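Predict structure. Chain length: 170.
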Amino acid sequence: MEKSPQTGNRGRVKFIIGGLLILAAIIYLIVSATQANAEYFMTVNELKNQSGSLVGRSLRISGAVVGDSIQYDPQTMNLTFVIAHVPGDNAAIEMGGGLAAVLHAAVTDPNRARLTIIYNGPKPDLLRDEAQAIITGHLGEDGIFYADELLLKCPTKYQEAVPSQVVGGN
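Prediction complete.
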């Protein structure tokens, strides 16, 4: 018994439709998983400007540690500190005199946007005044940023010291 051309075309159409439905389902799963696990990298100003829409989302923020705000309880391992806004644009940082100068300006300027950070864990050794902090966590409804991870860099620690005999000259 031979298949009619019409029956063969109907089978191909069903196969193509089924393939497209499977492809659409795979694309949907990839997109939804990516959005659920996405972290947004922001500055303190950006976070403050959009805070209402970002509550509870996984975020990564950057700022300068305000040294006199650091409070640590070794018994509970609760760490609280404040970060000040630092531009996220490398060109702006270079125009500001480099990272160390920009971090210093951010900490000493009381008009810069600031954000309170709460972290539960051991106090990092590099947590000090004017350290650059990159923090992963989420913004609470109370406006406090609850950190899951802290990455700190102190630019003055990595600057090469100029030998004293070079400075004075011969």
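Summary: Residues 40-158 form a domain with the OB fold (Dihydrolipoamide Acetyltransferase, E2P) fold (CATH 2.40.50.140).
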